[in-house]
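Incident log, entry 3
Record: Putative pterin-4-alpha-carbinolamine dehydratase (93 residues)
Problem: checksum mismatch between cached and fresh output.
Input:
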Amino acid sequence: MAQLLGDAEIQSQASKLSGWTLEGSKLQTTRKFKDFIEAIAFVNKLVEPAESAGHHPDIEISYNKVKVTLTTHDAGGLTQRDFDVAATISQIN
Ligand SMILES: C[C@H](O)[C@H](O)[C@H]1CNC2=NC(N)=NC(=O)C2=N1
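Fresh output:
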């Protein structure tokens, strides 16, 4: 199982991750698109990288907005996997 990161490490990595906020023991971003179709297209683009990483974001879709939340359920908090997948998601348009 992936190891939980310490508070200092979490703060340090979060400060380098543009567009994401720390919400307790979770990393979160909300992306806004032109419409529902574009929002779903973005979600579809997450599937392959998440599967490849073996790490899956929680996703909430509200019309043209997609809220993406990352935490490591198995470990009960943030691990390096969350930051790695967040960085990958940041590069998806
Ligand atoms: C066995 C498998 O790798 C695990 O159950 C993975 C799958 N994807 C996961 N994704 C997330 N976000 N947290 C997990 O703890 C997790 N566990």
